[in-house]
Each structure stands twice: as C-alpha cells, then as structure tokens.
Amino acid sequence: MSKSISNPFLFVGKQIRDEYGRQIGRVASFKVTPTGRIDGIFVEHGDGEFLSYSTDQIKVDNGNLVISPPLKLKATALCNEIPLVWRKDRALSELVEKKKIPPEMYDDLHRTFDGALNQLKDKAKGLVGDIEGQIDDCNKQIHELHSALINLEIEREIGRVPSDSYEKALGIIQWGLKGVNAEKSDLEALKSKLSNLLLGEETQAPKMPPTESPEQKEIQNAPAPVSPNLPEPPVVIHVRNPGKQSS
User: Fold this and answer.
1) How far apart are CA 43 and CA 21, in angstroms?
2) What pTM did the predictor assign?
3) Could you give the C-alpha distances from 159 to 15, 169, 239, in angstroms and in order?
4) In this structure, are strands 58-61 and 50-54 parallel, antiparallel, or unpaired?
5) Is the pLDDT of residue 226 over 70?
6) Alpha-carbon distance 16 to 225, whole Å?
7) Measured between alpha carbons, how far is residue 166 from residues 64, 142, 169, 228 in Å?
8) CA–CA separation, 117 vs 163, rounded Å?
9) Which of 75, 86, 98, 116 would disulfide-bridge 203, Cβ 3.0–4.6 Å?
10) What is the largest CA-CA distance in the chain?
C-alpha cells in the first residue's frame, strides 16, 4: 500500500470498506517504522473499538482504502506455496535420477522439502476448518436477513410501514444480502481450492515422455517390412443349373 500512496495520512478520517463494499469504520492513523515505512493501519469501528490491520490486508481501489479478509490472504499464500514446494521436491527427484546430484544430498533435501510440505498441508487443513466456520457465520447472517425481509414485508402488508421507510429498509437488507452472499461465494471457492490441493488434484506432476533406449529408437526408425506378394483371390464363376432353365 505504501508504494502506491505518496501520503497515506490523507486517508485519515475517511471511511474504509471490505472487499464486498461493507463499511468497516474510519481510518484513525497508521503504524510507521523508524525508517518511514507504513507497517499497519488503525481503524475506528462503528462500535467505537479501535483495531489495527497489517499493510498486507490493505489495498487501494478507485482511490479508496479496502481491507482484504485475512482468511483470503492466508489461503492465497498456501495455494502458491504448496505447489511450489511440491514442484521443487519433484525436480530434486529428477535430478538424482539423472545423477546430477549425489544420493546422500537427495536424502537430506528431500526430508527438508517433505517436512515443509507437511507443515503447509497442516496449515491448509486448519484453514479449511476456519473457512467452514466463517461460511456457517455467513449462512446465519443470510438467514437473519431473510427473516428481517419477511418481517418487513408483513408489516408493510398490514399498513404499518410507510412507503419511504419501506424503501430504505429494503435497500439496507438487499445490500446486506449482496455483501454476505459475495463473501460466502469467495469462502466456498477458497475452501474448494485448498481441498483440491490437499487431495493433490492441482499438484500432479506433468507426465514426462518415457525415455527411449537406442535399441527402441532404432526399431521405431526402421522402415516398415515389405509384405510378401499374396496370390490373387480365386475367381468364382456361378454356373446356372440347366434343369432350372425356362423352356
């Protein structure tokens, strides 16, 4: 964020939203390192609580500061790191097969890569559980918003809600449903991607063509054998039965 904004303190007092357009609060201040680098942001929430966010969570969108969900950042990082470590381990195996590294070096490095991969997978499993919990929260919010919508429609039907109040309430509820449904879709996509990684569906090694021996290549490149001349098929002549000829 600090690289794209010349003076981030110009955002102090302005509203900050999440990726789904929902207001989080107001920018209160920034964390600044002794060298002048922006290291975080302080946000005053609507209930008066002050919370800090890392710069990794903050991005600029159309001149506004936006907070990215921490679960999304963690999942994105794991989706990049797990395939990378896996590919390195596969490359190590290919190098030892080609005798480009000594076998004793392979054992040490393979244990290092395998240990790192298992740690990342454990993190991914824990994160899948966190995402499932967040999806449950989204479902509860969706249920509550639908309940609010039904109650609003009932009160309007019996004439207790003026038209202007109804339109305002309807807009608020619809906006809330739009945001929470978008968040739920994002979370479900992240869960699916992490689950696929854990199952190995996105880290399959590309199939390498089999190595051919010189003898196999010689056989493949040899000209096709010439088939011997086969005799012509016999000619069958059908002779009519004289006894059945018409007189």
Assistant:
1) 16
2) 0.73
3) 36, 15, 103
4) unpaired
5) no
6) 78
7) 30, 19, 5, 93
8) 59
9) 86
10) 125
